[in-house]
Amino acid sequence: MASHAVGSRSSFHLGPVTQGFISACCRGEGPVEATDDAFWDQFWADTATSVQDVFALVPAAEIRAVREESPSNLATLCYKAVEKLVQGAESGCHTEKERQIVLNCCRLLTRILPYIFEDPDWRGFFWSTVPGAGRGGGDEDDENARPLAESLLLAVTDLLFCPDFTVQSHRRSTVDTAEDIHSIDSCEYIWEAGVGFAHSPQPNYIHDLNRTELLKLLLTCFSEAMYLPPSSDSSNTNPWVQFFCSTENRHALPLFTSLLNVVCAYDPVGYGIPYNHLLFSDYREPLVEEAAQVLIVTLDYDSSTSSSPTVDGTTTGTAMDDVDPPGPDNLFVNYLSRIHREEDFQFILKGVARLLSNPLVQTYLPNSAKKIQFHQELLVLFWKLCDFNKKFLFFVLKSSDVLDILVPILYFLNDARADQSRVGLMHIGVFILLLLSGERNFGVRLNKPYSVRVPMDIPVFTGTHADLLIIVFHKIITSGHQRLQPLFDCLLTIVVNVSPYLKSLSMVAANKLLHLLEAFSTTWFLFSAVQNHHLVFFLLEVFNNIIQYQFDGNSNLVYAVIRKRNVFHQLANLPTDSQSIQKGLQRKKKTPEPISRTNSQDGVSMEGSRPAAPAEPGTLKTSLVATPGIDKLTEKSQVSEDGTMRSLEPEASQLSPEGNPPAALSDGEPWSGEASHSRRDRRRLSSASSSAQWTPTPDWVMSWKSKLPLQTIMRLLQVLVPQVEKICIDKGLTDESEILKFLQHGTLVGLLPVPHPILIRKYQANSGTAMWFRTYMWGVIYLRNVDPPIWYDTDVKLFEIQRV
């Protein structure tokens, strides 16, 4: 036992008390009676502790020792701490002493709960009622029959709207007439102006600190999810979140709006004054982080298995106390899905965009603004908003404001591409862009010229936001780390989805697309994994969409296609005999790089940019479950003449355009052993292990080669190449600009095959991604809570903690 170490810090009350508690447990004195108030009160009477002190003074080994050797004392401690919180909520915490007791109980429970959750035998403890725990010992009224967890959650929510403790009192007079905590309408005490609330209360840093401690305890209660392994059954609802977001919580609406408004109203720059944050300590930021984390956890809800949240927007913004609210039982999801006022959408979008752009602002005036660290939580929140509230999604895409979200996401993707500890960030950024790309308006918005010069490690170019997207995607594919390969399908699907709407690509972006085609159509790449040829199909689809639907403005792309025409001819003449296949695979062994980085003409990177750096050795990261294959992530929709979309029935699209049954495309069920094998092979694109399980055959190559959609491009080459060659010979031209001028004025009307219908692959919710989001979100929360380290060194099951 390490209890003597604790005693040595006797300047704190908690030291000797903890020592007394531990030794009382270990000297065999047996259980301490719950009625022995003198003993228990020592735990919370102290005035000089912080949550960090509690973590230092109550070591993990001692909590576990008490759990094993003196379980009844641990149970009593939890019960008494909850009882104190309930009493504080009942009384309204009018004295400094009561507030101190509430905060200390809060800290102690935050410290102990993870050790209750990690032991399966204890997991049900908070959901049991405490025998003989009636307040007077005997009077068992209904209130006392509540499970401990429910009493705890209700007390915390009451305390979050406690006048003079966590909210400004509306009364001006003395303690005698203080508001009765049970009669106040908490909707009048919402923490910040924004959605559904117009009044911005005076900032009060003590209230912010107290809210932060209570939210930390809430998050710790919800973290039971970390101690259960990932399962494909996403209907495993978290009982803590379920109760907290139910009609039992009378503060659900004001709490939801308080959390959302506190996050979206936060301005880390300090009211626009550079360097302001160096002069004033910011008490708001820890609260905003905690609020963002609690918010995304309450919104962890699998929309694929449930009736979709309503988007009719008919309900008003008043407290919604219908017995059976429309949409999901989770009130937080319900409220989120029912926000519908334009000014609310504007407030949310502006807030999220301001915060996501914060790390980019840093690059102009270094240290001029406070750099926030919670962009991953913001991305999860933005995802939930778009996924649960389609009206919000349409609002985002209605104007070019969506670009204020796009640019930071591209910045994060580009910055994190070489860093193995940020694979999760790469995924969520790509998922959001996949979701947006399913809507026509996103493609249209990308045509806006890109003028903001955020220093990024990419070639300098002049062009549109579409160019920026393509150039960043090219960087990720050619110079990201190996573990990003499963994302290639997603990246190219996004480009396919927007391609019919791209009015004019720059020469830099056009060359990048052709470089990708060149890399993906080498024989060793095509023959080295069963699904690699899909990438070629996606790229050909991009070229076809642009040639058929946006030929006029895209002379740069047409010129690049003409220059690289041999790539298309090689594809059309791809050998299918066994000998050539073997020869192609031999070449692979000599080229361990997944994609050649040569002849990509990268040019000079933007001024002020730093190359994307790999993770520092030893950086902690959390493991993620695999994501479903692109065919499970998306469903195909056909765009009609009038621009409306029609979902294609699964049986019609049972064969993907390449003619393979979808099974070949997908990762299978992410939790089956086989699937993880094929994924590992895919990751080691260049290792020999995959060839042991699967070998390419002539029949297999023929099966997809015959479906390569080359007709449109071959026809374009057939018409334009002789004309371009003639100009070059006639005018002795070596100058691109003349040829481009000719191509700009050329037309292929009537010469190309009949335009194909536009196919969009729209993201569809499924339990595989729901589980991915759960593991990603909790992994972020685990790693971000280091002071104090709430879950560090506990037996977490949802993910593994790994070092890079």
UniProtKB/TrEMBL annotation:
<dbReference type="Pfam" id="PF12722">
    <property type="entry name" value="Hid1"/>
</dbReference>
<dbReference type="InterPro" id="IPR026705">
    <property type="entry name" value="Hid-1/Ecm30"/>
</dbReference>
<feature type="region of interest" description="Disordered">
    <location>
        <begin position="579"/>
        <end position="696"/>
    </location>
</feature>
<dbReference type="GO" id="GO:0016020">
    <property type="term" value="C:membrane"/>
</dbReference>
<protein>
    <submittedName>
        <fullName>Protein HID1 isoform X1</fullName>
    </submittedName>
</protein>
<dbReference type="GO" id="GO:0005797">
    <property type="term" value="C:Golgi medial cisterna"/>
</dbReference>
<dbReference type="GO" id="GO:0000138">
    <property type="term" value="C:Golgi trans cisterna"/>
</dbReference>
